[in-house]
Amino acid sequence: MRLLVVEDYGPLRDSLQRGLSRAGYAVDATGDGEEGLWYAEREDYDLLILDIMLPGIDGLEILRRVRAKGHNVPVLILSARDQVDDQVAGLDGGADDYLTKPFAVPELMARVRALLRRRSGQANPVIEVGSVVVDTNARAVRCGTETVALTPREYALLEYLARHLGAVISRQELWDHLYDFAAEASSNTLDQWVARARRKLRALGAESIIETVHGHGYRMVAP
Amino acid sequence: MSSLRRRLVLGGALTAMVAVGLAAVAVGVTDRVLTVRAVDQGLAADMKPQRFRAVARLMFQGFDRDEHRSHDERRPPDERRSTDERRPPDDRWSEGPPVLAWSQAQPSTLLESPAFSAAEIAQIQAAFNPDRAQDLQVGSRQLRILYHVVTDMPVPGGRWRRDGHQPPVDILPVVVALPHEMDAVYADLRQRHWLLASTVLAASALAACGAWLLARSLVRPLSSLAERIAHAEPGVAMGAISVPDAPRELQPVVTRLNDLLTRVANAVQRERRVNADIAHELRTPLAGIRSQLEFAQSDSDEELRRASGVALGIAVEMQAVMENLLSLVRLDAGQVQVQAQEVHPYALVQSCWHSLEQAARARSLECDLALPEDWVCTSDATAMRVVLNNLLANAVAYAPVASVVRVQRDAQRITVSNASELDPALADQACEAFWRADKARSDTGLHCGLGLAIAQRMAALIGSGLTVQVVDGQFCASFEVADLVSAES
After folding, report:
1. Do A105 and B294 touch (CB under 8 A)?
2. Which residues in chain A are contacts of B286 at CB distance < 8 A?
């Protein structure tokens, strides 16, 4: 899952980027409104986390322009403004959620997960694919009673494929949603992650649920 | 203390009455003096002819009696005086004002007037005072008598010379007393004085009314000003004061007062804005600190996790202080809206205590919740939660270790008491912002003394009250829950 964080306060931005990355999300972060808008319009993000008071263009204007261009990306506003009017303005402006600073990180993570579920049309946080269970809340993959030891990147790959169960996902799309803007594109890297995930699942006796669609990409299917 | 209006009315009326009274007395005295003086002048004017007439008559009494009549009889009939001329002196001299005259040289010589008895004549003679009119009560009559002493009798011609006789000047000096009846004069004077007194009374009543009207007119702008100031609610910014028809003398006061109010309002506004800005500006850095520390909780380094956990606790408390400060500023600025709804105090207290349970357990505190479970009131649940949360948090922070926090109902009042001791003299200050009973305490976490201040303001916002008392030496906060619907109706 690829997220964009637009927050002008450096320490908070860095902390969010680091924390979300550690949780397995691909995170782009910027402190400038115009740059944020540029990212939001150019890249296909799974979630935007926007501050309101930003240099250049404020968060509400970024939101307005993104929505005007027809992007349905979920948007979480993260603002120090805690008044009801501010929240109403944000939500009416097209945001999907509003969180007031300072916030508890677990709450932020829960909201991020909820918004990502909504985007993929999966209301249930637990996705079952045969004997494999992808628990998006725990950010863990279980096979029977065993938990598969996955790196955050491997988990993100499995979660993305599980969210789009049955759909062929191109390498480019996977790359776009699993790696941030700074990552250098390499199909080999992606193939290596897929191979590792398959190996770990197989080690626990799971069925082969990730198919390779030659010339296109990958697909997760229920056995 | 009497009001300014009463003082002005009393002062004005008394001054006017005294002034009118003094003026009336002066008029009365002047009237009397002028009236008596007019009488005296009349007497003096009459005295001129009367004194010669009286002295002449005295002399003629002797002349006619002893000589004049014989001479006349000796005249030829054609030279004799006419009947009128020969008329007895008493008949001729009885015309005009009653005059008394007597000789000082010959006490027996007296010109009497039929208007006075012998006793009255003696009284008039005894009261002799030369050349000065005086009042004398003669019998039932009040007289004004002017005495005059005639020492010389000019005789321009006359019968003595014609007849070759010498006038009987040996009776000189002669005292002439000219009396004037004063009863009618004084009766008239009394009537005028009564009229004057009635006028004074009427004028005094009018003066009192005038003083009242004047005082009211003078005091009205001051009353208006005082009323506006008296109706100012503590803690609520006062708008500009307008005093209709303020006199010129009061206008600078009103202007300066309005300037002062504007400055105070600006200062309060500025203070609130600064507080709000500070609190607001702290949100983002606090969010940065919290997120850094919370993410650090999942770090592999145990020492980093422990340290970040402690720091996270401090950050959370700082956040609570900041939120409290912001709440206080918003409450003071009237930015919090109230919504009437059904509230179950028992459940509310239970919920509040639940959120504090961990901290209470750490200090081995127990909650004795003795509210009726079926008690329902109509108030703002959010505001009530803020009040109760602050009261309970305060109790958890300051109650002695291993004590009991009691929550009871007394009529419409929720009392939260704990075993912490408080000087009764300090109870009134407990709800002031940034006040703490013991500033040196540090084992109860980070507190800045805003909780009770917020609770009191929030209670006031929902029409309720919060007071702090010391009952049996223990801290006891009473939250009077007012029914919002009843208050509105």
Report:
1. yes
2. 101-102
- Determine, for residues B291 and A19 on separate chains, whether the beta-carbon distance falls below 8 Å: yes
Q: Is there a contact between B298 and A22 if contact means CB atoms under 8 Å apart?
A: yes
What ipTM score was computed for the predicted complex, to two decimals? Answer: 0.76
Local structure of B246: helix, strand or coil: coil
Tens of pLDDT, residues B242-276: 877 778 888 888 888 889 888 888 887 787 777 77
CATH for A2-120, among 3.40.50.980, 3.40.50.300, 3.40.50.720, 3.40.50.2300?
Answer: 3.40.50.2300
CATH of B251-332, one of 1.10.287.130, 3.20.20.510, 3.40.50.300, 1.20.1440.230: 1.10.287.130
Whether B287 contacts chain A with CB within 8 A: yes
On chain A, the residues whose CB falls within 8 A of the CB of B336 are: none
Query: Domain residues of chain B, as ranges?
Result: 4-190, 251-332, 341-488
CB–CB of A105 and B295 under 8 A?
A: yes
**B412 or A71: which leads in pLDDT:** A71
**Domain covering B341-488, topology:** Heat Shock Protein 90 (3.30.565)
Which residue does chain B place closest to A103, by CA atoms? B287
Show me where the domains of chain A are located: 2-120, 126-220
Which residue in B283, B284, B295 is closest to A19 by CB distance? B295
Which residues does B219 contact at the CB level (< 8 Å), separation at least 6? Answer: B3, B4, B5, B8
CB contact residues (below 8 A), chain B span 320-379, against chain A: 326
The domain defined by A126-220 carries CATH number 2.60.40.10:
no
Instruction: Grade residue B65 by pLDDT with cuts at 50, 70 and 90.
Output: very low
Question: For residue B31, which amino acid is it?
Answer: D
The answer to whether B287 contacts A105, with C-beta atoms less than 8 Å apart, is: no
pLDDT value of residue A60: 93
Pairs from B136-144 (Cβ < 8 Å, separation ≥ 24): B136/B179, B138/B179, B141/B181, B141/B183, B142/B181, B142/B182, B142/B183, B142/B186, B143/B179, B143/B180, B143/B181, B143/B182, B144/B36, B144/B39, B144/B40, B144/B43, B144/B179, B144/B180, B144/B182, B144/B185
Which residues between 266 and 285 in chain B have a beta carbon less than 8 angstroms from any beta carbon of chain A?
A: 280-281, 283-285
Q: What is the pLDDT along chain A (223 residues), one digit of tens a residue?
A: 899 999 999 999 999 999 998 888 899 999 999 999 999 998 889 999 999 989 889 999 999 999 999 999 999 999 988 888 889 999 999 999 999 999 999 999 999 999 998 888 888 889 988 889 999 888 889 988 888 888 888 888 899 899 888 899 988 888 888 887 776 666 678 888 889 989 988 888 777 889 898 888 899 988 7
